[in-house]
Amino acid sequence: MAVTTQVPDLVTPTWDYAPAPEARTLATIEASYDLFIGGDFVAPIDGRRFTTVDPSTGEPLAEVAEAGAADVDKAVRAARRAFIRWSKLPGAERGKYLFRIARLLQERSRELAVLESIDNGKPIRETRDVDLPLVAAHFFHHAGWADKLAWAGYGPDPQPLGVAGQIIPWNFPLLMLAWKIAPALACGNTVVLKPAETTPLTALAFADICRQAELPAGVVNIVTGAGETGRALVEHPGVDKVAFTGSTEVGRSIQRALAGTGKRLTLELGGKAANVIFDDAPVDQAIEGIVNGIFFNQGHVCCAGSRLLVQESVHDAVVARLKRRLRTLRLGDPLDKNTDIGAINSAEQLDRITALVDAGQAEGAVMWQPECRLPERGWWHAPTVFTGVAQSHRIAREEIFGPVVSVLTFRTPSEAVAKANNTPYGLSAGVWTEKGSRILWMAQRLRAGVVWANTFNRFDPASPFGGYKESGFGREGGRHGLAAYLRTGADA
Amino acid sequence: MSSSAVAPFVAPDAIGDLAAATASDSALRRFLHGLPGVDQVGAEARAAGLATRSIKKDAKRWALDMIVAMTDLTTLEGADTPGKVRAMSAKAVQPEPGDPTCPSVAAVCVYPDLVAVAKRAVAGSSVAVASVATAFPSGRASLEVKLADVASAVDAGADEVDMVIDRGAFLAGRYSVVLEEIRAVKQACGRAHLKVILETGELATLDNVRRASWLAMAGGADFIKTSTGKAAQSATPPVTLVMLEAVRDFAEATGTVVGVKVAGGIRTSKEAVRYLVLVHETAGVEWLRPDRFRFGASSLLNDVLMQRAFQRTGRYHSADRVTLD
Amino acid sequence: MAGRLDVRKTYKLYIGGAFPRSESGRSYAVADSRGRFLANASHASRKDARDAVVAARKAFDGWSGATAYNRGQVLYRVAELMEGRRDQFVEEVLAAEGGGRAKATAAVDAAIDRWVWYAGWTDKVAQVAGSANPVAGPYFNFSTPEPTGVVAALAPQSSSLLGLVSVVAPIVCVGNTVVVVTSADRPLPAVTLSEVLATSDVPGGVVNVLTGHAAELGPWLADHLDVNAIDLTGAAGDTDLAVDLEVRAAENTKRVLRSPAAEPDWTATPDGPRRILAICETKTVWHPMGV
Q1: What integer pLDDT is reported at residue A492 of this predicted model?
Q2: Do B41 and C139 touch (CB under 8 A)?
Q3: What is the spatial distance between Cα B47 and Cα A108, in angstroms, rounded to a whole number?
Q4: Interface test with C, best of A468, A471, A479, A488 (most C CBs within 10 A)
Q5: For all residues of chain C together, what is the average pLDDT?
Q6: What is the pTM (predicted TM-score) of this model?
Q7: Which of A6, B13, B243, C5 has a CA positioned 20 to 30 A from the CA of residue C286?
Q8: Which of B125, B134, B174, B124 has the alpha carbon at shortest distance from B154?
Q9: Which of C173, C179, C199 is nearest to C81 (CA)?
């Protein structure tokens, strides 16, 4: 390998990181995928398929089965059959299956990270360092619960609910799968899970892991498809519990559909979180928290800190520092290990973001984006900061679900709380101040299920996650999350 | 200077007039304690995040050369002799015999009594001679003794002086004592550049690292330096991150550019490249030059040379093929 | 000579600590268990429900911000005051529900004891349902139950006092405020309870009592976007109403405590803090641990 080395120009340095792509070939992508029902991959009854694409290029990746009502019925029946034995299995044995799955996930984490980045468009840095470690941790944590449910605080003999119908979004495909499947299985339920139509591949890879773990057939069933598939699952009479993560709009339609059925329901929906920066904040970490809060995962995060509430006295300083920091963000190939901002997951989502960004400008907010060359193919959106935003602007009220932050100001702690709570959502909130008593005062008053103080967007399987108000109900993670999958006391 | 003007996050009156902020002990305390706090966990997370940057190919080759050019090749042992210093100096001038593309290091760093030897050994090259002084490494001596130490180094021709701050005074809250000592040393340095060693391992908190950085810069430091290499904890990425933020903010506030030197415990190219990434994404590319960032190291250089050879040949290298210094 | 003419009581609504008549001016005749006229009760309207929600929202910050110990004392005082009016409650429950004095007395005693039970829960529930979470990182992480906000409740139709207390007490003990629709046919003990609440230390607006019909008021409350949760216990046996309200509640993803198939036996000891937690949020707070 002959290489000419230049003595570095020491006077006017520039240092461009060379591309450092993770190998696409680490992930095997089949041309076509079937449904995973009763332990086997089976073709959809009516033969319908849809295409999943690589959002960073727009190129098709694979054909994926579209489950119709009859396929969903087959999956639910398989889950019902499997429930009989799975629910009777000693908890310790169920737990061992989950431990096996956790280990297999760890062993295959590099492959899964690459696959997730390809199908979702999110940077490999995040799939590798955030998603996959949390996925394995979630199974590991819940594996240990399986034989300890009697001590979870839900009575001496809590029982599983039966078949859980689970619908997950495209922003953290495998992680949301883990959040749904791990507690359901640990509690003795069986599941039929529908991944999002734009990101089905890691769920199908997970099906293969279930087979490698020799999980009994029918305990986990994966039905791919879009809204109609989800509807068939939600409305299936053989489903005892529905768990949904996604938009508030779909969430409320599910809640309506379940009225009177007695099916249990947990919803993890949208958000419009306030990230509150006080004048005594640890400012450099706060800037990182803002960036992590809204630009992590392209802002495709329900708990994203999309409303930046800055104390007026430091508004200019914070915005200037934020802009400086955003200039260092690297947008591009999701598989490049140095990419910070990947692709927007779909054309549809990009349209939604663009429409709200247009509305922000039309309503008079001031838009700023760092110099940033967007790739020509695929779907991309530059990191965007809106200043001069009023509480009444659409960009301050509606969930954008993209890399767009709206900056508002406040004068006093009370005003910060009032503005932070002035939303129908209540999923998360952030507080940045070096004053401990103020943090606890704020945390008590913020109407949000998760409050990150001097940090943001941290997740852990032992930590309950879920929203207030129209961000849904029920919690995922830890002891609290088990309640969603157990029949206890009076409803036993 | 960074291209964008960034309003300071500290009290404008304090930063607007550094002279006023340092005019009295109480003003100095108010100023230093008015600096924004550093959340340790957040700073560590940021440093760890930057450590995952993957530097490959041309970017790596550029980085390896830059690391060589930023190195203060150091020997600070009780057993140092003129022979040892001459050997090291020769290597400093020409780290890779037979490869003219390999830059010289920035400086050699020795004790004051060996400055003259080093000076002769690097004569005619671009390599500077740095000397530790001020009762290095503990700094536990009278100001007179410290100034005499500095004078002996400067008189022997040191281009750069690496002083240590009085950590005892700093931790006792006697900030003015520390400041006055830095000012006195700065004056004694004359034309020699002053690097102020904070010995961050003894300062215990990142808040203290930030305060000490500002204190040193207010006292006239040309560089702020992490460590002596003699304490239990030397340079770490989070400490360096906070110091880089300090020089960045100081430049924004005052227009004065101060460099950063990391020292102690950096032995591999991989670690050193991570420091370059920290510099690049914190203070900015403007600091990626030998007069603004330095590595104080001894064994690092050989690892970099082996990496350079690997980049050049595609073969992993043997320590037998790089020279001992 | 005939004895003196007794002074009859006017049964009114209880909203925001005051006793208004229905803004609609309507009332309806309430009969005892044998069908004899007892009194006219206010017939609450949708606007009364609206006003009650406003009052409940207004009271929420203060009540949820009070210390758990304070809420416990306040609820215990409700029991104390009920005890003082025990005979009156027995008479009213007996008149409303029939079934004999012993049964009515037992129901009143149980209702008083239920306040005591939930008064005791106020400062226990966070310890029982909260947690310090061992996350894999340098963070202190804790979860704690918090009130969800304004709760609408349909009180049981049969158990006029004990049932209503069993529904209302767990809602308010954790810091929620409530708008409760009484049993339609047996509203009078609830109104007397309102009088107890008004003279106790329960701040106005924390409990708001509407006499009237669940089928009329329920949809307005289930639709109301400033109501965070709805307790459908009182719709037991009325599947159509329960389903309709559950559908409406979805508009702002209200937490729904579904109606049981039949009204439960309220004399049974409550199943731990289950009813409290059914209308609670879990809040999780993260903070780094560093020096």
Answers
A1: 41
A2: yes
A3: 27
A4: A468
A5: 97
A6: 0.95
A7: B243
A8: B134
A9: C199
Half-sphere exposure of A8 (CA within 13 A, CB side): 26
Q: Which of B172, B196, B167 is nearest to B184 (CA)?
A: B196
Residue A341: per-residue pLDDT: 97
Facing residue for A449 by CB, picked from C244, C253, C282? C282
Q: What is the mean pLDDT of residues B196-212?
A: 98
Q: What is the pLDDT of residues C153-170, one digit of tens each?
A: 999 999 999 999 999 999
Domain ranges for chain B: 12-321
All residues of chain B having their beta carbon less than 8 Å from the beta carbon of residue A280 are 36-37
Interface test with C, best of A460, A476, A479, A486 (most C CBs within 10 A): A460
Considering the four listed CATH numbers 3.40.309.10, 3.40.50.2000, 3.30.70.360, 3.40.190.10, the one that applies to the domain covering A274-460 is: 3.40.309.10
β B160-164/B128-132 pair status: parallel
**Touching chains, B (3+ CB pairs < 8 A):** A, C
State both tokens at C8: 């009859």
Q: Is B99 a catalytic residue?
A: no
Superfamily of domain A24-269+470-491: Aldehyde Dehydrogenase; Chain A, domain 1 (3.40.605.10)
Q: Which CATH number fits domain C41-288: 3.40.605.10, 2.30.30.90, 3.40.1010.10, 3.40.50.300?
A: 3.40.605.10
- Catalytic site includes residue B162: yes
CA distance A284 to B252: 15
Chain C residue numbers touching A462 (CB-CB < 8 A):
133-136, 141
Q: Chain B partners of C287 at a C-beta cutoff of 8 Å? A: none
Looking at the domain covering B12-321, what would its CATH class be? alpha beta
Domain extents in chain A: 24-269+470-491, 274-460
pLDDT score of A69: 98
Phi-psi region of C290 (alpha: psi -120 to 50; beta: other; left: phi over 0): beta
Helix (H) or strand (E) holding C180: strand C177-181
Please answer yes or no on whether A259 and C246 come within 8 Å at the CB atom.
Answer: yes
A448 vs C284: CA distance, rounded Å: 9
β-bridge pairing A274-277 and A366-368:
unpaired
DSSP letters for A100-134: HHHHHHHHTHHHHHHHHHHHH---HHHIIIIIHHH
Question: Out of B4, B37, B65, whose CB is closest to A8?
Answer: B65
Question: How are beta strands C177-181 and C150-154 bridged, if at all?
Answer: parallel
- For residues A164 and A240, what is the distance between their CA atoms, to the nearest angstrom? 6
What does the block give as tokens for C26?
A: 């309507």
